[in-house]
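May I ask for a sample protein chain and its fold as tokens?
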Amino acid sequence: MDVMIVEPDRAAGNPPAAMPATREECRTRLTTLRDEIAAIKLELAAADLERQARHGRMDRRWYEQRKAALRDKLRRSADLSAHMATLPRRKDTLKDSVIEVVRADYDDDDWQRVLDEAHRRLETREGV
């Protein structure tokens, strides 16, 4: 018998959640997802212990629904982690802000000299 697995949110007619705009929002959602994943795993483990104690069977439909929910949450967590990796880090945003502030104090030739020196230092650090 084939079991059709449908994502819980999509089955309920809910659209997928929009990805957060900041790393902090991603961290908050990841924390929530990880808590939900842990809760589902704990629920499955408790149900299995109960099944073993009574030498019975687990409700297959319930089990499949919980496993589908677990897979969905794991997929969301992976998607969110991948999205978070594309967002600028605070340090990168700070560097961009510093450049905006300092750039106004230099004409094009002086700015080019600053960039050349920065590239030289970067290459020295990387050993290129």
